[in-house]
Design goal:
This protein is an alpha/beta fold. It is 40% helix and 19% strand. The protein has a domain at 2-175 and 222-260 and 299-313: NAD(P)-binding Rossmann-like Domain (Rossmann fold, 3-Layer(aba) Sandwich), CATH 3.40.50. α1 (11-22) links the parallel β1 and β2.
């Protein structure tokens, strides 16, 4: 089957493309390359364009009328940056997604898997969230994801769309075959920062926030291997009708599904695991929380198993090892 992936030249989109290829399917990549990498499009069907370019989207479906579903990953994703550049985030993530969803509806391609985020959840007692847990997005980035979910749900109600919003927790690792990985030159994510410090590219790891109401004061997260995350998208496409039939509410062809391991790990605990894998202590500096940071959450992933037959398989240690391997070869693949 053919599947369109917006943001298909990004970290997660390119990994989803690899999962599809390895499973005998054909990914069609659409990416503006604002943040994605041309290197990740090599030997893949690729269209360089913006998701709001209606003419190009029409051309893609004209060229590939047998596309069965769209996986919408295209978005700006850096939380602190969203605080200083909210206009860019609302325009790129919300306004352009709205145009893109309407184009899919107009063209008659209703199946949409949307990359959402666990950042939209409120902090809850015990930190474990289900899909019914209260929402409280606290940064412009997380608010764009919340708004995109609402737009998609409303479009599924009003137009001929069917939507599955996958709420990602915290991706780590890389494609185990090292075809793609985290490509940002100066990453802000935890795993990216730790790799940079371990390789001597940065002098110290800044542990931001140690006064949260968690078991050790550092933020709590649910770290999921990006390969497991990508496999969930394949499962979503393969089980789309079942997921909608069993997971939708109020007669709307739309449902949300958490993608996480079901295990909460604090930043301090993750640092210990990283140091164990790398075999050395890292220099650490305690810093205040970054703009937009929250105490965190981890997933109840029962619905993913029920609706998709999916659960995370890879360990944190495997994610760390793959991230380190990718860190060693990244600059031989990506030319900054």
């Amino acid at each position: 089957m053919k599947v369109l992936i917006t943001g298909g030249a990004g970290y997660i989109g390119s990994t989803i493309a690899s999962v599809l290829l390895d499973s005998g399917h054909t990914p069609i990549l659409l990416d503006s390359l604002i943040t994605g990498r041309r290197e990740f499009t090599r030997d893949r069907i690729f269209y360089e364009a913006d998701i709001a370019d209606r003419a190009m989207v029409r051309r893609i479906f004209s060229d590939h009328p047998d596309i069965v579903a769209t996986i919408h990953c295209a978005a700006l994703i850096v939380v602190p940056e969203s605080v200083s550049r909210p206009y860019d985030y609302y325009r790129e993530n919300v306004v352009k997604s709205m145009e893109f969803f309407k184009t899919l509806s107009d063209l008659g391609y209703p199946y949409v898997v949307f990359s959402s985020s666990a950042a939209i959840y409120d902090v809850v007692p015990g930190f474990m969230v289900t899909e019914e847990s209260p929402l409280q997005p606290l940064s412009p980035y997380s608010r764009t994801k919340f708004m995109m979910e609402m737009v998609l749900k409303d479009f599924c109600h009003a137009y001929n769309l069917k939507g599955i919003a996958l709420r990602y927790f915290n991706p780590i690792g890389s494609d185990p075959q090292m075809r793609t990985g985290l490509h940002i030159q100066h990453p802000s994510h935890l795993i990216g920062k730790l790799v940079e410090v371990s390789m001597g590219r940065e002098s110290v790891f800044n542990l931001t926030g140690v006064d949260w109401p968690t078991r050790d004061g550092s933020g709590i997260r649910d770290y999921i291997h990006v390969w497991d995350l990508a496999l969930a998208h394949l499962k979503a496409v393969e089980n789309f009708d079942k997921a909608i039939a069993e997971g939708s509410e109020d007669g709307v062809n739309y449902t949300v599904i958490n993608l996480g391991t079901g295990k909460g790990v604090t930043v301090r605990e993750f640092l210990v695991a990283f140091e164990h894998v790398v075999g050395k202590k890292l220099p650490v500096s305690i810093q205040p929380p970054r703009p937009g940071d929250v105490a965190g959450a981890y997933a109840n992933a029962d619905r993913a198993w029920k609706l998709l037959g999916w659960k995370a398989e890879k360990s944190i240690e495997e994610g760390i090892k793959d991230a380190l391997k990718w860190g060693e070869i990244r600059e031989t693949i990506i030319k900054y």
